[in-house]
Known about the structure:
By secondary structure, the chain is of the alpha+beta class.
Amino acid sequence: MYWLLQTLDLDVGSNEAAFPGLSRDSAYESVVTCPSLETQRAIANILDRETARIDALVAAKERLRLILAEKRRALVPHAVTRGLNPSAPLRDSGVPWLGPIPKHWMVERSRWLFRERDERSITGEEELMTVSHLTGVILRSEKDVNMFEAETTEGYKLCQAGDLVINTLWACMGAMGVSPVDGLVSPAYNVYTPNELLTPAYVDALVRMPVFAQEVTRYSKGVWSSRLRLYPEGFYEVWLPVPPLDEQRAIVAHIAAETARLDALRLATDRIITLLKERRAALIASAVRGSRCYSSSSNTERELIIWRPRSGRNSSL
Length: 317
């Protein structure tokens, strides 16, 4: 009975109301196969054993998926703040959010690494960019944005490819990143150009770490925690690690390669989980709904009885 009920599409007979429920009449209209008790026990034993095996495989793949997600989360912070050489000697950075860094790296305040860009669009015809904690800086046209859009973007701030754009209001949530192309952004945002000590791609990886968003929150201003704003004078107080440029490029390349590899493994794992679950459902349906079945005690082929329960209040399956 347990396995049989899993094959019935009882949603078809549910009532769509304020308090949804299963219609008794619809449930009693279900037609099910009813083999002998001996065959029922044989089917149940097989399904108990085979579904347990599949469930164990699914659980193992789901554990792998969690491990891959954790490795992906740890990939960027470790590479950006520790570098790629595990044997490199470390030193205390003197910055709590950074901790130990490779001995040959520099640590500088943002004020010595960035200059604010406050150039305005005359025509407003440049590509409009948007910033979020999920995507960083992307073209607004590539994102499903339902927020109010101004009639004109004249006077919006210009940004160039490689500029750091920070959503002043949502910086504490991680809404910042490096622009991939020239464009324009809201006048409420702040735009910063990194100097020759930093590569834009390294800056993007650095500022999009959750720990960095926590750090800039310390320098944000506002009465309410949900309305904190990160102004330039606050951003310029933040200390940043500065590896040599060749290491920055190597770090960025490593992050891109490892992210692609981990994402490919995650997609493959998701496909396997989906296939295993489909196999489980098909196995149950095949065993329970099959037109013929075999007894566990003999190879005698037995016809299945098609049984429709009586309708009525006292009827039962």
